[in-house]
């Protein structure tokens, strides 16, 4: 069964460093998303991406964040200068159609020290 | 503020019983509703989706939607210890103009052997 994959599974970084989280969405899906979940809190939407551009972003997704689809399979989330409060699980998701079911990857646990 | 609300639990049921999980949402224009299961430290895993008023059954799971009351529920029949997890209600709100999901905080279900 097709699935969303994410790398790395864990990332530890120093405050102020840049991190890139990588995702491979399900191959025939067209819509891609990043969500995050701070420990003990709810899953929060960050950004959605369609047709090689951001279709929607939340207030959390400020200028420190960017997304890219560098090739036909990968979808990345970059945090330019990490802050302590960026420590969270980051989930990539993809869906085949607008408002269709979103399938989540296993997540990347980011710890900013 | 557009919200999805769930009782955080824990909801404790004996093995073999029916577990009933509830969710309310604030946006009357919401059109798509999803139940995800999340084991501790893992990513959300889709259980069911429902778009129309009424019941939708899939194996031991039944989703119920009442748009007039802005209420969606998940019933788990013949609950098993392996069903013990946090159940997340997610809603595609804003009248379908967006495909981001708004999540509730989740209900922790504990099935006692």
Class from secondary-structure proportions of chain B: mainly beta
Order of helices and strands of chain B: EEEEEEEEEEE
Count of discrete alpha- or pi-helical segments spanning 4 or more residues of chain B: 0
**What would the average pLDDT of chain B be, to the nearest integer?**
93
Shape of chain A: globular
Shape of chain B: globular
Q: What portion of residues of chain A belong to β-strands?
A: over 45%
Percent range of helical residues of chain A: under 10%
Element-level helix/strand string of chain A: EEEEEEEEEEE
Query: Can you give the helix content of chain B as a percent range?
Result: under 10%
Major sheet attributes of chain B: 6 strands, mixed
Mean of the pLDDT scores of chain A? Answer: 94
Number of helices of chain A: 0
The CA-CA distance between the termini of chain B, in Å, is 40 Å
The stretches of 5 or more residues of chain B where confidence is low (pLDDT under 50) are none
β-strand number of chain A: 11
What does this structure look like?
The complex is a heterodimer of chains A (about 110) and B (about 110). Chain A has about 110 residues and is an all-beta fold. In chain A, strands 2, 4, 5, 6, 9, 10 and 11 form a seven-stranded mixed beta sheet that branches. A four-stranded antiparallel beta sheet of chain A has the order 1-3-8-7, with no helix packed on it. Chain A has strands at about 5, 10-15, 20-25, 30-35, 45-50, 55, 65-70, 75-80, 90-95, 105, 110. In chain A, a hairpin with a 6-residue loop joins strand 7 (about 65-70) and strand 8. Chain A is globular, with a radius of gyration of 13 Å. The model of chain A has no long low-confidence stretch (mean pLDDT about 95). The N and C termini of chain A lie far apart (about 35 Å). Chain B is mainly β and about 110 residues long. Chain B has no helices and eleven strands. In chain B, strands 2, 4, 5, 9, 10 and 11 form a six-stranded mixed beta sheet that branches. Chain B has a five-stranded antiparallel beta sheet with strand order 1-3-8-7-6, with no helix packed on it. Chain B starts with a strand and ends with a strand. The interface of A and B includes residues 42, 89, 101 and 104 of A.
């Amino acid at each position: 069964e097709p699935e969303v994959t994410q790398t790395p599974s864990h990332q530890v970084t120093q405050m102020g460093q840049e991190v890139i989280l990588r995702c491979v969405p399900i191959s025939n899906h067209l819509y891609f998303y990043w969500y995050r979940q701070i420990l003990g809190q709810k899953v929060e939407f960050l950004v959605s991406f369609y047709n090689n551009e951001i279709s929607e972003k939340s207030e959390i997704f400020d200028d420190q964040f960017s997304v890219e689809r560098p090739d036909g399979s990968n979808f990345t989330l970059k945090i330019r200068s990490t802050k302590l409060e960026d420590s969270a699980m980051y989930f990539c998701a993809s869906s085949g159609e607008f408002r269709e079911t979103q399938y989540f990857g296993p997540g990347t646990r980011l710890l900013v020290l | 503020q557009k919200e999805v609300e769930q009782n955080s639990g824990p909801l404790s049921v004996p093995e073999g019983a029916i577990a009933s999980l509830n969710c309310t949402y604030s946006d009357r224009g919401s059109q798509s509703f999803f139940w995800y299961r999340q084991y501790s430290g893992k990513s959300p895993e889709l259980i069911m989706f429902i778009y129309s008023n009424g019941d939708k059954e899939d194996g031991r799971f039944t989703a119920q939607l009442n748009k007039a009351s802005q209420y969606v529920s998940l019933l788990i029949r013949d609950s098993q210890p392996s069903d013990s997890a946090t159940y997340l209600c997610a809603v595609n709100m804003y009248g379908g103009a967006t495909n981001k999901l708004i999540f509730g905080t989740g209900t922790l279900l504990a099935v006692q052997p």
